[in-house]
Design goal:
Length: 326
């Protein structure tokens, strides 16, 4: 792309939690930032070369995986996760000026936000109808349109503060005050981020065949090499009923022998395995590595096997040379 400034896209519009995550990337303030209407659109800009990277949500501490993202990165042109960002989540209920809580009949927001405010809604506006929105920010901004068909929106406090036409009816309406959403920065495949000692590796593994023990074989590739899994989720491939892939986060970096061996094992039993990247953990928690699965242990084991093969080879050559002629 022309120019020296990088271009990022994110799940928009402006004011979303996703934009807040993007702004934690060191050069994002100086970069060109393009909001996208949905996850597929954001990733599509990266795939077609219109953006260097995209920031999208992948996991929430309350609702789990963001299925739109899990599915979008599991198929199509390969992408790589190069960074993750954690954002604490809080919500406010906004409406047009002059409206009262008792006037609210229809509320719009993103599905994950609605799920995280469900108890508050049931307690305070039990009869309110949910209107799905593409994002929390889009739902809030939609209130300013003349033809808006809902009465209120759930969004981030930042959105409410940036739009004079919005009035806050209630603050901190999330059911879990410790809620956190995990976002990933995704680019085209390239050089892996360097090992930090506090890393994560993400893969997508299709179930090779639906039979007893198939999932156990996948998990054993990690367990037998001392690799801990921090997330595993099943998603339908869409091909037919009962056909799934597994989205997996593993502690460690592909540059570590134990992780590399696990990846090789996955590929042997499921050749369709997709590597989505190794990158630094946002929480910087170091990954404890038992001595028996350290790089040094793998190297020593490989040297031992090579010494056996070398000895056998020498013995074979000596025996052949000493054999009497027929």
């Amino acid at each position: 792309m022309a120019g020296t400034s990088r271009t990022y896209t994110f799940l928009g519009p402006e004011g979303t939690f996703t934009e807040a995550a993007l702004l934690q990337v060191p050069d994002a303030l100086e970069a060109v930032r393009i909001p996208a209407s949905n996850v597929n659109s954001a990733l599509g800009k990266v795939r077609e070369g219109a953006a260097d990277a995209a920031m999208v949500p992948i996991e929430n501490s309350v609702e789990g995986g963001v299925t739109a993202t899990l599915d979008a990165i599991a198929t199509g042109q390969e992408l790589r996760i190069i960074r993750e960002v954690l954002i604490p989540i809080s919500f406010v209920l906004v409406t047009r000026p002059g409206a009262r809580l008792e006037d609210v009949r229809r509320v719009s927001t993103h599905g994950h936000a609605w799920a995280q405010c469900r108890l508050w809604m049931d307690k305070n506006i039990p009869d309110a109808e949910y209107v799905p929105g593409s994002s929390t920010a889009a739902a809030a901004v939609g209130l300013l349109a003349a033809d808006c068909h809902y009465d209120a929106a759930i969004c981030a406090p930042l959105v409410a503060s940036e739009h004079a036409g919005l009035s806050v009816l209630a603050e901190d309406i999330g059911d879990n005050p410790g809620a956190v959403t995990r976002f990933i920065l995704v680019s085209l495949p390239g050089a892996l981020p360097a090992r930090t000692g506090a890393d994560k590796t993400t893969v997508v593994v299709p179930l090779p065949e639906d039979r007893p023990g198939a999932l156990m074989e996948i998990l054993d590739q990690f367990a037998s090499r001392g690799v801990n899994l921090s997330r595993i989720e099943s998603r339908p491939t869409g091909q037919y009923l009962g056909h799934y892939f597994f989205s997996i986060d593993a502690d460690g970096h592909a540059g570590e022998a134990r992780v590399a061996e696990a990846l090789a094992g996955l590929h042997r039993i499921s050749p369709g395995t997709r590597f989505l990247g190794s990158y630094a953990r946002a929480d910087k928690q170091q990954t404890p590595v038992p001595a028996y699965v350290s790089d040094a242990a793998f190297s020593a084991a490989q040297s031992w096997v090579e010494s056996i093969l070398d000895a056998e080879s020498v013995a074979g050559e000596t025996g052949s040379a000493a054999s009497p002629r027929a």
